[in-house]
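Bit of a strange request maybe. I'm writing a small parser for structure token strings and I need a real example to test against, not something I typed by hand. Could someone generate the tokens for this chain?
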Amino acid sequence: MRTPIIAGNWKMYKTMPEAVEACRRLEEMVEDSAAEVVVCAPFTTLSALSALGLAKVKIGAQNMYFAEEGAFTGEVSPLMLTDVGVQYVIIGHSERREIFGETDELVNKKVRAALEHELTPILCVGETLEQRKDGQTETLVDGQIRLAFSGVAPEAAPTVVVAYEPIWAIGTGETATAEQAEEVIATIRATLTQLYGAEIAEAIRIQYGGSVKPANISELMAKPNIDGALVGGASLKPEDFAAIVRY
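Reply from user aminoacidic:
Good idea to test on real output. This should exercise your parser:
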């Protein structure tokens, strides 16, 4: 039985005092939830959030570089994340791929570096609207998964959380139907089965992300292959995020 995981991606929002207050309120609202709850906050808030010592809400970063140190101006290493108590890290979000030009090869390096430092990667994959209209969704997502997991040992693979985020549904108000999400996520699990076998593939948790709200979370979570959600805008308000966690 896979434990559901609901993660919030705050993106470039919230100062440190705002982040601390939001996490404290969220902790009170979700402390009795059976789901794993993660907040992926801006780098500037991570140390303060980790220092809160929250029992239920775990802290994650939104990105990292694959090297431990070096002349990489503006980057943050996995060693720096573990140093401040971070446990999770989003890797390969579409905004990183689309805006900052991250390639599948770079994403793979980050996934392997995160695992080496005992961070839980939340690996994002997904297609654009044009790619979906052209019937490329399954081929594209299959390729993203194969490249991202390249060199990942079978014993490490179940540690990775995969997030299917159709790019056309991120921050647009558009949401893939539960059936569309389940179809692609089932394809992802089939690819993982080819790579690692059924037992390992069944142990890997796969989230849906893309305009997730309290109103649509129950329908999404009712699907057999959907193990959680990566939540954007709705995670910024503790009340909304808690309602999603308590689906």
